[in-house]
Design a protein that fits this description.
This protein is mainly alpha-helical. The protein is built from five helices and two strands; from the N terminus they run αβαβααα.
């Protein structure tokens, strides 16, 4: 994962993010290096990125701009939005105050550990 400024467009980090996906364990044989499909919102709706995803063997499932809501992608996006809301529950992560990205990533990792611990406690 790479950290960028808050004023950068998300779509500029799409391909570097896909390149950093680790091998996906599962079936016997060579593990997958990329997902089967990519779910995205209207901000990623551009022919260039759709074409680049198809070239990598990834099926783009991207909401079209100008069409009414109701594509069904919101069901899957809710998981991501909820997780970001949990991370924003930690005051230090709402606004990035650290200048060094390694410190910020360490706080992100610590927050994820605390969130996971809370959820495991509820199960026990």
């Amino acid at each position: 994962m790479s950290l960028t400024g808050g004023n950068r467009n998300d779509v500029t980090q799409l391909l570097p993010l896909l390149d950093k996906i680790p091998a996906i364990a599962g079936r016997v044989g060579r593990p997958r290096r990329r997902p089967v499909a990519l779910l995205a919102d209207r901000g990623y709706d551009h022919d260039k990125y759709r074409r680049l995803l198809w070239q990598r063997g990834i099926r783009p499932v991207i909401a079209k701009r100008g069409e009414p809501h109701g594509t069904g992608l919101g069901i899957f996006r809710y998981v991501v939005e909820r997780t970001i809301a949990w991370l924003h529950g930690f005051r230090r992560l709402r606004i990035r105050w650290e200048r060094r990205d390694d410190i910020h990533e360490a706080f992100l990792g610590l927050a994820v550990c605390l969130i996971t611990h809370r959820h495991v406690q509820r199960l026990c």
